[in-house]
Amino acid sequence: MEDKDTGRLEAFSDGVFAVAITLLVLNIKIPSQILADKDLWPLLSSQWPMLVAYITSFATVGIMWINHNRLFQQIKHADTGLHLLNLLLLLSIVILPVPTALSAEYLIRLDQHAAAIIYCETFFLMSCSFDLLWYYAAHHNRLLGKDTDKHEVMAISQQYLFGPLGYSIAFGIAWINTPICIIFCFFLALFFALPARSPRSLSANRDSIHVSQEQR
Amino acid sequence: MEDKDTGRLEAFSDGVFAVAITLLVLNIKIPSQILADKDLWPLLSSQWPMLVAYITSFATVGIMWINHNRLFQQIKHADTGLHLLNLLLLLSIVILPVPTALSAEYLIRLDQHAAAIIYCETFFLMSCSFDLLWYYAAHHNRLLGKDTDKHEVMAISQQYLFGPLGYSIAFGIAWINTPICIIFCFFLALFFALPARSPRSLSANRDSIHVSQEQR
Amino acid sequence: MEDKDTGRLEAFSDGVFAVAITLLVLNIKIPSQILADKDLWPLLSSQWPMLVAYITSFATVGIMWINHNRLFQQIKHADTGLHLLNLLLLLSIVILPVPTALSAEYLIRLDQHAAAIIYCETFFLMSCSFDLLWYYAAHHNRLLGKDTDKHEVMAISQQYLFGPLGYSIAFGIAWINTPICIIFCFFLALFFALPARSPRSLSANRDSIHVSQEQR
Amino acid sequence: MEDKDTGRLEAFSDGVFAVAITLLVLNIKIPSQILADKDLWPLLSSQWPMLVAYITSFATVGIMWINHNRLFQQIKHADTGLHLLNLLLLLSIVILPVPTALSAEYLIRLDQHAAAIIYCETFFLMSCSFDLLWYYAAHHNRLLGKDTDKHEVMAISQQYLFGPLGYSIAFGIAWINTPICIIFCFFLALFFALPARSPRSLSANRDSIHVSQEQR
Q1: Nearest CB partner across the interface for D14, out of C12, C95, C118
Q2: What burial class does residue B55 get, using C-beta atoms within 10 Å of its C-beta: 0-12 exposed, 13-18 middle, 19+ buried?
Q3: Chains with 3 or more CB pairs closer than 8 angstroms to D?
Q4: What would the pLDDT profile of C105-143 be if each residue is shown by its tens digit?
Q5: Could you tell me if A187 lies within 8 Å of chain D, comparing CB atoms?
Q6: I need a surface site. Which of A27, B177, B206, D141 has the fewest CB within 10 A?
Q7: Is the pTM of this model over 0.90?
Q8: Helices then strands (H, E): number in chain B?
Q9: How far apart are alpha carbons D160 and D153 in whole angstroms?
């Protein structure tokens, strides 16, 4: 009974994540004329910036979904505020194909930075919405389960602080060098794939180790 | 056992809402040529009407989903009539990307009103389908759970009356001023994000306050 | 435990139905130039054939989903054969946007019939796949629940015979008159929205009326 | 309780599979001008390579979904590694519409092989990701249920070895003859629709037959 409140919110979010992650591929265009092999190979090879941007966005959305999943293992109840903040998060995810296509086109134009700036800005907004969602739910255990582990909540809160921070740095890099910026975003996504547990055991809550042992 | 009848109807609706809300973004086009930064910024900035229309439609569909979710916390059974009325609602939601794209293009053409009129008309049909769905299910408790709270049902019924009414007003504004009309639609969506509870406690059923206290 | 086997098959099918029904809308194009109101109204009005074809396809897919739902209230188990036949059904549904777009374009060209013929052919294949799925599952109660009502199974089997039959007639009309053919398809879809129960009580199994009374 | 860990992973994967399988159809274009019947028929007939490539991709993704379903009847738990490997699999599936469209265009150009090579390469990556996912989960029963049948796990592991092997052969054929290569891919998909059980009973574990009898 405890985890029922958020069932449809999760199902709807899964749907939006799934469609958004798949629509990214619509940006990859195939050549409109029939070409000989010797002309097709270089043409397809020249599309690698699109592939880099595509995979970075795919990884970011996919790993954002993994974290959405992690959050809702803690969040057991839903209210109007949570629904609206979740919509805000979905809005930032759904719009991602646009800056992805843009930054892919400009990836090899080292003197132009507008596209990369917009790309990082979207990621920044995404991570802010994500944090808002979590802090809203976790504030005074508002929407969490009764048996939630305090240390786990703290560990998640700590890790998510790095979201807006990391994407601020990416945003700064975007003004200087587009390719480095996109590679940085890719590794930032991988960082968030790591579970929040490790920081906890390294942090000050050493006396709680015997507590964490008994959770699965 | 009681809430099983509508499981797949909800899953299918979640899917349609999720796809429809994501397809809206396909309307946002990126410039087809590579431009220098100083040309790209103004070009992107000039696309704000598209963004306004997009966010308004996103908010409306998202909040319509929140309300769909609310309804199906009350509706426990499904029959053919409910399925057909639900399809009617989904039809009006799925078609929304078309008037959204249209009204975005005409948002800054203050002398042209056709696009805004069609946009509001779609919202009007959407809210009518929504009301039909609810009144069909709630009529004599046809498809609601046995333990449904009468006052909650009345509160929802009351709030949803404002749907067709509100969009009629928006429709009137569309003939006069497109931007005001779209902003009005955006705030109308936000109004429906508010839960139906508050109107109830303000309404005539004051003697039932001790009843509502014990529901969570 | 009994209805678990088909859970993911239903979820996946729901997803495909939801995406297919929403992609239909991508066929509706908006004018690419900005027009004055007096030019826009007639242009949009001239798109009614697209709307007629769109609504017919939407209704057919939606009602096919309602019937898919009905079938899987009886089908409790899944095997490889059922999965493959279900994929065949989904294939015919997913391809529908193509003939829909085609027949919409040719709806007002009364002397051309190719589009309508292909449209009906798709519906015919769809209803055949649907019947195959059902007869495969219902044959000797292969995949049905243990407590399935025989008369209900017979009633469903009987109603679904009309699918290929009805679309054969539509196919015949397509060679003569496209608009009548599409209207016929629309009403055929509505016919399948009717539950299979009524034919049963009208049929020869009159002695079973007291049985059907006690079901839900 | 045992099969709960992977619930949302399955729901998200179902969504991605459903969208990817439906987006394939966007590659099928309809003629942009209105043509007379006698011109339309040959034009549509000339699109058969698109249909062949489309159906091959549809079958491959659909049957990959059937196998994903089979795997997660064994896999009961999810960790970060499984989530990331699942994303890798989804990435390879989601990108499929691009090589499908490409190979469809070049299917009748018997002297050009680039498209078919890329098509098979995608399938090869797909089957490798699939195997990685399975071996990661099955290694020392890492994420399987406690009551998993060893012989079934071995049978699955054995069958999936044929994935990368089969697509390597397809890759070889792609350098020689595109149509044969695509037909080969189609039948390879059908091979994976067969359940993994039959190889087991044929294999060395004959003494376990009485064990397998009592599983459903």
Answers
A1: C12
A2: middle
A3: A, B, C
A4: 888 887 888 888 999 999 999 999 999 999 998 888 887
A5: no
A6: B206
A7: no
A8: 10, 0
A9: 11
